[in-house]
Write a structure and sequence with these properties.
Shape: elongated
Structural class: alpha+beta
Strand order of the largest sheet: 4-5-3-7-6
Strand content: 5-15%
Distance between the termini: 163 Å
Low-confidence stretches: 207-225, 228-232
Number of helices: 5
Largest sheet: 5 strands, antiparallel
Mean pLDDT: 81
């Protein structure tokens, strides 16, 4: 709505765009699995559609396994291109694409809200409300109670749930089935599920075929036999047929040769893949064998180390025990040496005091000797 004016004179315009584009701009993805999300459908459409589009699930088609998805596309050329493709590759599936056929709409009188006539044929002067069925000019009918004045049920008078509208719709579809020439040529109308009665889901307007089917089965001109061909015409026809057969045989031989080439190419590629697969298996087997040898060596090393550790532990325990005994013996010997050293030092001290006393006596004796000689 960007091209709409925001204001006309003193009237502010606030356009409300339609929910969907016309049926000519819509396609349907049929039986899309439930596991495929709308985001994945959007990504797949981005790869093939350069125009704007919108995606919507059709609620009436949702089942436990699949559903239909409607896609509105802004470009009619893109719609035609996608329909010519026929399928959409999506997450490993080939989704069928068909054109969207809108259900037939009913033209109703806007005054009395009945489908049998239009406003031009309405003779009364009272415009009835679609909600309550009363005169529209009497009061405000924006919040009036909803009650159909056709069947007295709780719905709008133009709702398709109304038996009057539903019966008229069914009669209209039955009449179009009987007289499809009333539809324009190359036009299809979708038939809702409740009105199919086990038949087709659409009505096609094929005026030319219908007129041809209405011709009498036999006419006076068709009773006469056509003239026989002359001999020369037969010869030319036989030559033409022979040439056609020869061309067909040549084409068949060409196709056979192409098929043989494709078969040889396929066998060659298959052999190459088998050789690559065998080489890969050999390399994988060699790697597994080396890993097995390495694992066995590691197991042997661990076993030897465990055996040596088991042998060394008792020896180390004995050595530690002997070391403790030796340490105790050495400590006792050191104590004894310390005691003896202390004893020697004490004896030396005693001896030193005795020697000093002896020296004193000797000195006194030496001093007394001269006095004795005198």
């Amino acid at each position: 709505v960007s091209h709409y004016p925001s204001k006309v004179f003193d009237v502010i315009l606030n356009p409300i765009p339609p929910i969907h584009l016309p049926p000519q701009y819509a396609i349907i993805l049929k039986y899309v699995p439930k596991m495929v999300s709308c985001d994945e459908v959007h990504e797949a459409m981005l790869a093939i559609c350069y125009s704007k589009f919108s995606i919507e699930e059709m609620k009436s088609s949702i089942t436990n396994k699949s559903r239909h998805i409607r896609i509105d596309i802004a470009s009619k050329d893109v719609v035609r291109k996608i329909l010519n493709g026929g399928v959409l590759p999506l997450d490993g599936y080939l989704i069928e694409i068909v054109e969207f056929l809108a259900p037939p709409q009913i033209l109703m009188c806007t005054w009395c809200n009945r489908p049998e006539h239009t406003i031009r044929e309405y003779k009364e002067t009272v415009e009835k409300c679609r909600r309550c069925g009363m005169n529209k000019l009497d009061g405000d009918h924006l919040q009036c109670s909803i009650k159909c004045h056709h069947c007295e049920d709780d719905h709008l008078v133009t709702d398709y749930r109304c038996p009057i509208i539903s019966n008229f719709r069914k009669e209209l579809i039955d009449e179009l089935r009987k007289r499809p020439e009333l539809l324009p040529q190359n036009v299809q109308i979708f038939i809702p599920v409740e009105y199919r009665d086990g038949g087709k889901n659409s009505i096609s307007g094929k005026r030319a075929n219908y007129l041809y089917s209405q011709l009498p089965a036999s006419t006076p001109q068709l009773k006469e036999w056509p003239p026989l061909l002359s001999a020369l015409s037969k010869i030319h026809l036989n030559e033409h047929n022979a040439n056609a057969v020869e061309d067909m045989l040549n084409q068949e031989n060409s196709l056979k040769n192409d098929y043989e080439k494709l078969k040889l190419e396929f066998n060659r590629c298959e052999n190459e893949l088998m050789i690559k697969h065998e080489n890969y298996n050999l390399k994988l087997g060699s790697m597994l064998y080396l890993l097995m040898i390495q694992n066995n060596q590691q197991n042997d090393c661990i076993t030897k180390i465990y055996t040596i550790v088991n042998k060394l532990v008792p020896i180390i325990n004995d050595s530690l025990t002997s070391y403790n005994v030796l340490q105790l013996t050495i400590e006792q010997s050191l104590n004894m040496l310390n005691d003896r050293n202390n004893l020697i030092i004490e004896h030396q001290r005693s001896t030193a005091s005795l020697i000093e006393k002896f020296n004193d006596l000797l000195r006194q004796g030496i001093e007394l000797m001269p006095s004795n000689e005198q």
